[in-house]
What does this fold into?
Amino acid sequence: MTGDDLTTTGDGAAELVAKLTLDEQILLLSGRDFWHTNPVERLAIGAVHLSDGPVGVRGERTVGTTSVSFPCGAAIGATFDPQAAAALADALADECADKHVHVLLGPTINLQRHPIGGRHFECYSEDPVLTAELAVAYVTALQARGVAATVKHYVANDTEFQRHTISSEVDERVLELCYLAPFEDTIRRAAPLAIMASYNRINGTYAAEHAHLLEEVLRQRWGYDGLVMSDWFGTQSTEPSALAGLDLEMPGPAVHYGARLAEAVERGDVSRAVVAERARRVVQLAARVGALDGQGHFAERRPRRNLGERRELARQLAAQSFVLLRNEPPSPDGDASPILPLDLRPGALLAVIGPNAATTTAQGGGSARVLPVRTLSVRDGLRELYGPVGVDVAHEIGCVTWAETPDLDVPVHLEYFVLAAEDAEQGVSFDGPVVHEEDSPGSPLLWMGDPIPSVAELRYGAFAVRCTADFTPELSGTYELSLAQVGSARLLLDGRVVVEGSREQGKRFYGFGSEEASGRIELEAGTTYQVVAEYEVATGSPLAGLFIGVRPPLPSEDDLIARAAELAGRADTVVCVVGTTAEWETEGHDRATMDLPGRQDDLVRAVVAANPRTVVLVNAGSPVTMDWAELPAATIQIWFGGETIGRAVADVLSGADEPGGRLPHTIPVRLEDTPAFPYYPGADGRTVYGEGLLVGHRHYATKAVLPRYWFGHGLSYTTFSFADGRAEAVRATATVTNTGDRQGTAVLQAYLAPQERADGEPALQFAGSARHTIAASDSLAAEIGFGEAQLARLRPGAYDVLLGWSAEPAGLTTVGTITAGA
Ligand code: BGC
It folds into this structure.
């Protein structure tokens, strides 16, 4: 793949398409399998390899082949830094090279419309301008490396409620000014080679067959010349989709295109010219990503080259994304300086408490997940940093937040066996030849399609796996081990059968898995046991899955909190890590509430009461209710910060790095304050975007609703001021000074306020930001440019330009006026 390929024009593609038969053209319009398009060997048109995306490159396999897990979309949003998005995309291009991926399925540029949206963590921001700035940088950097970006999900796919069918009912103007804006800007400024139509309907019509949005808006108005693909299983029809502009049905094999499309052409419902045009887009994409080399199969490998650099980038991005929400002196009558950065001496006791301390959530759930190389928890990151200097890092879980049994989170060794038809009836003996071996991070294990594409004997729906792991419990007592699987399985501990898998159908693995079966066993803390799961799948289904669960012998919830408070009381400093997990924040469903799951609010209160020197870390991709916000000395939002999150936390708490993020969304006091709240989730298959243009901070500023934390808020370990603010037609400028005694990063923000507000219009809207790292006592000139498209979206009239450090109206300074539409 070379960057030059991306400049290939459509002309060559048209010539190539003219040489294809109608059947070959139709073949190109649907996937071959989950992650490839169909090749046409006769003309050396290779298969195009696609992969999720958007903050890691998972590749074809969900077992075995690891990928670096970078901070989630909301964390990238919090950097307020297009260069960070570009650096991420550049590293993702390296990952794509390892996995031989031509097309990355990202970035996700839907807006964070509702705090409980399941994919809120995957999106950058509630704001269209910030979203667009980051997306343009990401797409440009990725494509400069020869990999196609796919902006998704087009459009108004902002929550997960009834996600495959819901109709987002959005006024045209609102659609254009808010939800389409990031797509329009990214397409005009960065020319992504692909776009993914969303699952939902928009004003009654499915996105993948929306002639107005695909043809009139995207192609004609914005001049888009890339490829439109469906979301996975998101194609709903044959003729309407083909005629509206859907080029590629994914995944394959075809359901609505393929034979049905051939029949539609035969009947005259779809013209040959339409098919040829769709095929031209696919060939053009193949040409642009260098897939006209006839290749059909690609070997994927774990990240190899510069793995250390990629993980270091993940760490830097995480630190840069952490938002310091609060930083106060620990107690009113004690030390006057804020608690952070921590000052821990040798011999100090640091208590690391909370359900997310030892198992920190590095990524949200759903298709954005990758198999990380090695995830470092907050507890272990702090131990790595502070252990060698003699700080004792002690841990208590404090409470649990599991919705379901937690996974056995230890690396596993996998041995694959071929399952012959006669074995399928009797069960394999597991002493036959091992045809393939590999290591993988722990449960759950999910295989889609052939388990190891490069091992021909292993075919989907008929293979067996012996999965071996070492497990060293942290507690002594009765553990419950469990299993759920697609097919059959049993679990042995040191050679003894502990669980026989159930045959009843359950919920796991998209409903294909069995009920969970469990067994109890006494285990000793610190002893290493060998856990073996013998698993076979003989269903003929392309989906195979094995879940191994473990419930430790925990005391009652009250006892857990009491133990945590007792440890906190003895400690010099407490780090309390609360948050959600990929169970709560995931593609597929929204959260039911904004509250922290389980007894975490009680835990924070108990820990702070025991020790005022407490720093709370919120390990979540979305806002959580923080009724305790004024209690801890400091609070940091650490997002789903990717696999090096623990190290990034240690560096930020110790002061080696500063928490460089600002909130890309508003954190409301109560969920009910959310602008979309009255309209969520909708009824009768429709969800009305009744808040109109007042998305996110625009609502809070316009309606004078006080949030917990404003969009754009985030402290630094130093302090800043600005002076000489000015506004001209297309920019605002100011001199920013670091008024503190250490280097820090300032994020100056510009907002626009119409001098005469029309009905339904925001009183204030974000217009751009400038991020600068400034040495102590230094000053520099900051400039915030307003984009052409952004200005064109303003109603003609005069707007005050305001500068400040967040969207909080009271903290903003008017520096001038601009006139829109003049
Ligand atoms: C998601 C997409 C993703 C696709 C492929 C869908 O469920 O909505 O974002 O790219 O699956 O995994």
User: Anything to note?
Assistant: The radius of gyration is 27 Å. Residues 448 and 543 are 5 Å apart (CA to CA). Residues 1-7 have pLDDT under 50 and may be disordered.
